[in-house]
Each structure stands twice: as structure tokens, then as C-alpha cells.
From TrEMBL:
GO cellular component: membrane
Listed name of the protein: Small-conductance mechanosensitive channel
Protein's UniProt keywords contain Transmembrane helix: yes
Alphabetic keyword roster: Membrane, Signal, Transmembrane, Transmembrane helix
Ranges that cross the membrane: 237-255, 276-294, 300-317
Signal peptide coordinates: 1-25
InterPro entries: MscS_channel_C_sf
Length: 556
């Protein structure tokens, strides 16, 4: 090729690419191709064969150029071009075989051995998950790729045809034979490009037509997706979950039967150690059964998801190892909280009945007095041994209490949350259980209770106040209590001289009653006071009253 002809060719190429076709021309070309209708499989095979032959022709030309090239850079560039053409030819050949046989031909290549890397191995484990997600979205992504490729070739075709028309115009005008030969060669190149682009458009449209197929409703698509999931991964997931539940329940049943034979209370240390080992083994074996089932089915996607969740769970639990250690000490009964001891929880006393995966606290004096507490909430609590006669609550149901204000109340209900009592006259009063525990109370229903009444007599009875009068008063009170049938509750009665007051000599009447008379506490108190007054009237004793003494100075 002479320098003159090369310059002429460059000049015409610049003219061709200086101007581009209008959008209207592009639209017209698209309409022309679309009006031709979707290509047939036979036409697509023919186009692929022509494309492969064109690539073979290009490879031969590149090999000839490689043999004539002198510069190493030029040879390297030709080798890269040949490598690209070979890959393109291989792709067209696989597509040709796929269309002709109806079977998707995948590209296979043997990769060289690589050095072991933990990151790559982990990615290899998670690869099925990524591949599964890619497979779920492969169809829409493939359709989008085909549409983009078709749009690219359809937009490029008008430019090629515009270039052909320009070259043909120059050929019609020129009379230079040498220039005409170069233009003819250039025209053949552009026409070959045009045919290649048309073949690519037909091929891509055929692929798009095959992948889209007849239109179907969204409901049908969803039904197909659900049916496919149920038949494959849904079945595998159900069986794996069933294996987990079955293994877990069987191991729990075996442990329950074994624990029924262990009747020692509290259980020995080895029993608690076996309990911890069993619970850990149960979780491990149950999870392993589910994973092995997924492995046997070859469902690598679900297996990868399960492993990923398991690794995430273990990784998130690493910060709670200290908490798990403390809980393990509680289960082994080696912590600060121990079975059979007394502990204060939410302000109330409780007995630690059992420590396992959860703690059981009981209070025998409360209705509904049993709590199941998660073991993590018991970490850090302290218990202590208790005495056998140590009360768990100030009262029991139906007990009668003497309140701080002097009134009495009968307990109707006491639970871990509240205490309800009935006051004199039938009114009800409610306390929070914690607040009730802090009250200063006197329980009249425990064993026995006493009533003390003070009576004052005039100083004129000073000679009899320590010997005769107490006996007469005691006899009178006992006689009348017996007459009104209160004597059956009376366990002890005593009248003694108490003290000398500013205006009277005071006697104390002290009576002790059995707890059956607790509800009559106020009536008995009033009754004893009344009997003291009646005894004074009966024996003619004078009850003093405060006197005002006036001292007048002596007159001069």
C-alpha cells in the first residue's frame, strides 16, 4: 500500500465518522428489523455458522500478519487479538451446539492448583449460597443483558449503513481507478460488518424469544415458584427441621427417664455435671443431625445458610462467655446461689427449690408462690442457709393481724404481688406484698396473744391495793368472762399493782387468750375494761380524777 493511497483511505474514514445518522434513521432501522419478526432456530444456526467462518477468516489474516510483523509490540498485540477471537469462536460454538441439541452447554475449564488460603476456603463454602442467589435472579438478569445487547446492535446498525451509503456515493463520483479499488475494498469491509451485526441481532432475538416464551400471569409464576420450592428446598428444609426436633425430643426423653431414677435431694455433684454435659450434647447432636441431612440431600444452599447462621450465632455469643460460665456454676450448684437456701428476690424471701436451665423459687406462705426465673437473671444473687422455724412471710391466709393504728385485719389473700385483708366492719384493704412486708404488725393467730388493761384507784386504798383488791378484781373478771363463754379461750389471767400515778394507784389486768379468739380481740379488750368499771361499782371503789390544788399564802 503506497503512502498516497493510505492517506486517501484515512481521509475517507474521517469523512465517514465525521457525521452520524439522525435519531429518526435509528428508529427506522429498528422498525425495519422488528417488522421482520422473530428469527427461527435454523436461521440462527446459519448466522452462527457464518459468524464462526468470519472469525476463522480473521484468525488466518491475523496469523499471516503475525508472520510478517517485525516489532515485538506488534506481535504481542496480534496474539491478544487472536486470543480474543478464539474465545469468541468458542462461545459461538457452544451456543451453536446448545441451539442444535436443545441442551445448555456450559463452559468448563481446568483450573491450576492453588495454595491453601483460609479466606478462599471460606468463600468456597459460601459459594453455593451466592450461586443459589444468583440462580434465583439469573432469568431477569439474562433477559436484561439480551435486551441491552440487542439495543446496542440496533443502534450501531444505522451507523454502518450510513457509512456504506457514503462510500457508495464516493464510488459513484470518482473516476480515479486506484481510489475506486480502495473504496471498493472499504465497502466490502463495511458490508461484512453489516451482515455480522444483522446476524447478531437475529441471534439475540432468538435467544430472547426462547427465554421469554409465552406470556403467563404473575399468579401462575408464583405458583410454579412455590411448587418448585416445596418439591426441592422446602422438602429438604422440612426434613432437616424434623430431624432436629426428633433428635432433640428423643434425647430429652432419655434424660427424663434417667433423671427419674435419681431421687436424691439435693442431687449430687456428678448428677449436675452430667446435666450440663447432656444439655450441651443435645444441642450439638440435634444441630448436627439437621446439617448431615442437608449434606446427604446435597442441598448446598440451605447447608451454607445454616452454617452461616451457626457461625453468626457462635460469634455473637463470644462476648457472653463470662455470663455462660456463671450460669454453668449455678447449674453445678457451685455459685453464690445454691439449692435449698434462702434468697431475697424482688424484696421477698424465697427458697431456691431447683437450679437448672431455669431457677425455681418457692415461698410456701404465698398463694401462687412459685416462680420460674431465667438463669441469667439469677447470676450475681446470694443465698444463705435458713432456720427451720424461720417464717417466709409475716402471715398466712385467714390470719388476724393487729395493725399499727390499733385496728385488726383478717388476711383474705396474699400472693407475690399483693396482700388483701378485711378490716373490722367488712372493708377491704390492699397492700403491695413488698410494702406489707415492711409494716410493723402483730399476728394474733400465732400461738396466743395478750390483752393489757390499766385501772386506777384512789390513794385511799393504799393499804389494800397490793393484796386484797387485786384478788377481788381477778375473781370478778374471771367469773364474768366465764359467764359470757369467753373463759374457754382464756389461758392466763393476772391482776397486779402496776405503779403509783400522779392522781391514782394503777392496777394492770393482763389476760392471755388462745389464737381462736383472735377475731374477738377488740371485743375482749372492751369487755375487760367494762368489767373493771363494773367491779369498781360492785365493791364501791372510788376511781380518782385529776384535781387542782390551790395554795393561798398565809395572811399577815
Amino acid at each position: 500500500m503506497t503512502p498516497k493511497s493510505f492517506i486517501v483511505q484515512i481521509f475517507f474514514l474521517c469523512l465517514l465518522f465525521a457525521s452520524l445518522p439522525s435519531a429518526q434513521a435509528v428508529s427506522e432501522e429498528k422498525d425495519t428489523l422488528q417488522s421482520a419478526g422473530p428469527p427461527s432456530a435454523l436461521q440462527t444456526l446459519k448466522d452462527l455458522r457464518l459468524s464462526i467462518e468470519a472469525i476463522d477468516k480473521d484468525i488466518l489474516e491475523k496469523e499471516e500478519s503475525y508472520a510478517k510483523a517485525l516489532m515485538e509490540e506488534r506481535k504481542k498485540a496480534i496474539r491478544m487479538e487472536v486470543s480474543h477471537l478464539l474465545r469468541l469462536k468458542d462461545a459461538y460454538q457452544r451456543e451453536f451446539e446448545s441451539i442444535a441439541s436443545g441442551i445448555e452447554i456450559e463452559e468448563t475449564a481446568q483450573a491450576p492448583l492453588k495454595a491453601f488460603r483460609i479466606e478462599e476456603e471460606l468463600m468456597e463454602v459460601l459459594r453455593p449460597l451466592v450461586e443459589g442467589l444468583k440462580q434465583m435472579t439469573s432469568r431477569p438478569r439474562e433477559l436484561e443483558r439480551l435486551r441491552k445487547d440487542i439495543t446496542f446492535y440496533e443502534n450501531h446498525l444505522p451507523e454502518i449503513r450510513y457509512a456504506i451509503s457514503k462510500v457508495e456515493g464516493f464510488m459513484a463520483k470518482t473516476e480515479d481507478e486506484q481510489l475506486s479499488l480502495h473504496l471498493e475494498e472499504l465497502l466490502m469491509n463495511w458490508q461484512e460488518k453489516e451482515q455480522e451485526v444483522i446476524r447478531q441481532i437475529r441471534r439475540l432475538r432468538f435467544q430472547l424469544e426462547q427465554k421469554t416464551g409465552p406470556d403467563e400471569s404473575m399468579l401462575v409464576t408464583m405458583q410454579k415458584g412455590v411448587t418448585n420450592f416445596v418439591k426441592t428446598r422446602g422438602r429438604n428444609l422440612f426434613l432437616a427441621f424434623s430431624a432436629f426436633i426428633t433428635t432433640f425430643l428423643l434425647l430429652r426423653l432419655a434424660y427424663w427417664k434417667w433423671s427419674q431414677n435419681q431421687k436424691k435431694s439435693p442431687p449430687p455433684f456428678y448428677h449436675r455435671l452430667l446435666q450440663v454435659i447432656f444439655h450441651s450434647t443435645t444441642a450439638f447432636v440435634s444441630v448436627s443431625a439437621a446439617l448431615l441431612l442437608l449434606y446427604a440431600f446435597g442441598d448446598w444452599m440451605l447447608l451454607s445458610i445454616a452454617l452461616l447462621l451457626l457461625i453468626t450465632l457462635i460469634w455473637s455469643a463470644r462476648n457472653g462467655m463470662a455470663q455462660f460460665w456463671e450460669q454453668g456454676k449455678l447449674i453445678l450448684n457451685m455459685g453464690t446461689l445454691r439449692e435449698g437456701e434462702r434468697v431475697i428476690y424482688t424484696g421477698l424471701p424465697w427458697k431456691v427449690q431447683k437450679l437448672g436451665l431455669h431457677g425455681i423459687l418457692i415461698n410456701p406462705s404465698l398463694e401462687g408462690g412459685m416462680l420460674r426465673i431465667p438463669l441469667k437473671h439469677l447470676v450475681g444473687m446470694q443465698s444463705r442457709p435458713y432456720e427451720e422455724d424461720e417464717p417466709w412471710f409475716p402471715s398466712e391466709k385467714n390470719d388476724v393481724l393487729l395493725l399499727e393504728d390499733g385496728s385488726i385485719a383478717k388476711i383474705l389473700m396474699q400472693t407475690p404481688e399483693q396482700v388483701v385483708a378485711e378490716l373490722e366492719g367488712g372493708a377491704r384493704r390492699t397492700w403491695a406484698a413488698v410494702d406489707f412486708l415492711g409494716l410493723s404488725l402483730c399476728n394474733l393467730s400465732r400461738k396466743k396473744f395478750g390483752i393489757s388493761v390499766t385501772m386506777g384507784l384512789d390513794y385511799g386504798y393504799q393499804a389494800e391495793i397490793t393484796n386484797k383488791i387485786p384478788g377481788l378484781l381477778e375473781q370478778y373478771v374471771r367469773k364474768h368472762l366465764d359467764r359470757e363463754n369467753h373463759n374457754r379461750y382464756l389461758q392466763y389471767l393476772d391482776v397486779i399493782f402496776l405503779e403509783t400515778g400522779p392522781y391514782a394507784l394503777n392496777l394492770r389486768v393482763f389476760a392471755v387468750f388462745s389464737p381462736e379468739a383472735a377475731e374477738e380481740y377488740l371485743n375482749l379488750q372492751r369487755k375487760i375494761r367494762k368489767l373493771c368499771m363494773e367491779a369498781s361499782s360492785h365493791y364501791g371503789w372510788c376511781i380518782p380524777f385529776p384535781r387542782l390544788a390551790l395554795h393561798r399564802p398565809a395572811s399577815d
